[in-house]
Amino acid sequence: MKKNQRQALIRQIITEYPISTQEELLARLQEAGVSATQATISRDIRELKLVKTQDENKNLRYSLFSQPSVSLTEDRLRSSVKREVLRIQVVQFMIVVLTEKNGADVVTNWLDEAQYPEVAATIAGVDTFIIICRSEKEAEDFADKLETMRE
Q1: CB proximity list for 21: less than 8 A, separation 6 or greater
Q2: For an engineered disulfide with 36, which of 40, 82, 102, 123 has Cβ 3.0 to 4.6 Å away?
Q3: Does domain 3-64 correspond to CATH entry 3.40.50.80?
């Protein structure tokens, strides 16, 4: 596997799983069929600018430096979802979201700013927007995350 493919897989793994050690990361890579040494993983972590942050349960885990676990952007996104979103529906690898009138662009602006790795793109209208995910599973999981923000 090429370096850029391995690093893309590492980014995907740390966003999907609470990885707190290089050993855990190596194990996940091996499960995916990737053979790498600890030194290679250490270099990848440095090049990807991965940092250890606390998750919502106060556990340490690797995350992307540009993607803080809880940020002002996410707080604003959560607030706009709670205020604007009326209905969320998953259609294969996409999420169709109905909002209050003129609410779609408000939510998608914050959604784009948050840069969630599972979100490939957003398309906004006046009262509806579509989130395009990379897989049906990511769409289901992200829809659940949006539903949680509505509470």
Answers
A1: none
A2: 40
A3: no
